[in-house]
Amino acid sequence: MDNQNNQAYEKALNRLNEIERLPNKIDNKNDIKDILENNGISRRDFMKWAAAMTATLALPSSFIPLTARAAELAGRLPVVWLHMAECTGCSESLLRSDAPSIDSLIFDYISLEYHETVMAASGWQAEQNAHNAMKKYKGDYILMVEGGIPSGQSEFYLTIGAHGQTGAQNAREAAEGAKVIFAIGTCSSFGGVQAANPNPTNAMPLSKVTKKPVINVPGCPPSEKNIVGSVLHFILFGTRPSLDAYNRPTWAYGHRIHDLCERRGHFDAGEFVQSFGDEGAENGYCLYKVGCKGPYTFNNCSRLGFNQHTSWPIRAGHGCIGCSEPNFWDTMSPFEEPLANKLYATSFNGIGADKTADTVGVVLLSATAIGIAAHAAISAVTKNKE
Ligand code: FSX
Ligand code: SF4
Ligand code: F3S
Predict the structure, then answer these.
(1) Which of 186, 255, 297 to mutate to test the pocket of ligand 3 (most atoms within 8 A of CB)?
(2) Of 43, 279, 337, 374, which one has the greatest count of Cβ atoms within 10 A?
(3) Mind listing the domains of the chain with CATH numbers?
(4) What pTM was computed for the model?
């Protein structure tokens, strides 16, 4: 391990020891070992999962035992999860698998003090639970918020519960006592579909509703790995991860979909699906010309997939729609057309509006060809040096 990793390792180890030493304030009767065992998951499987999660978090393999321990300690941290204006797809992304994944089991194990979709309580009792949890764990709880938030004059479009509180009020109140705040999903991170033009409810991202710092975990929905990874990263380090310009953790959103896409070879070779269902589609060609926004989208779907690695949008045959980018409903649509068509139609004031991805494809391909040539040259130089 280099010096930097050594320091991070020591820091994480001390923090985990500290969490373990502190009296457990949580009344969590679940035991992760039992949960895993009851679901037929062996210790070996769990350690394999910890290894994969460690790599996902861009940590060296020496952290694997720490990641496993962080998962075991996840039940000691209270989580308050609020729903704003959204489709609940973000929760579903974690909870709806026919065979529960280790990620969803960890999520079960986390002490969800309040989560409208999964808690047993309803009505007054549910509201009371939320208030009790925020009071009891003030300054300690992890806040996760799903959904865009109608704001200003339009706050009342999202009115929740018996006291006529607006979503914005609830979010602000919950943010006050939170230790760390995650905006889960594109709606909460950037406004999402609610904020799409003409944004009738004046929906805002969480970061515009609270003054406290917010870590964005976008995607419509985000993958289960990015949600659980965010919690584990916080347990391991207790600090904000390195973030990009849109406050997204770089361990998850540091690469473009296009960089690691399984169809990338076809893009480089100029082999494109021209229309859905054609021979190119059967051969798994690149989806750029039928609208893929993978070249403009930062997320780790092409590396990790969804539903326990079984599939992801591009493997399923549709281009990436850019769902983890700000304002993607407006900026990336129409979803089945290449963005280049829209750029030509709008950027040059109509000049070149007749240009399509066919022309643009040539430009892209020339750029790619130059890239490949440069790469070959660099490789040759490196080889000669060896
Ligand atoms: Fe939004 Fe999440 Fe898309 Fe849906 O709630 S990010 S509409 S998948 O569910 O907030
Ligand atoms: Fe993959 Fe889309 Fe890039 Fe083609 S354009 S290689 S389908 S990400
Ligand atoms: Fe979204 Fe594109 Fe991934 S549409 S789920 S960022 S492949």
Answers:
(1) 297
(2) 337
(3) 3-252 (3.40.50.700), 257-385 (4.10.480.10)
(4) 0.88
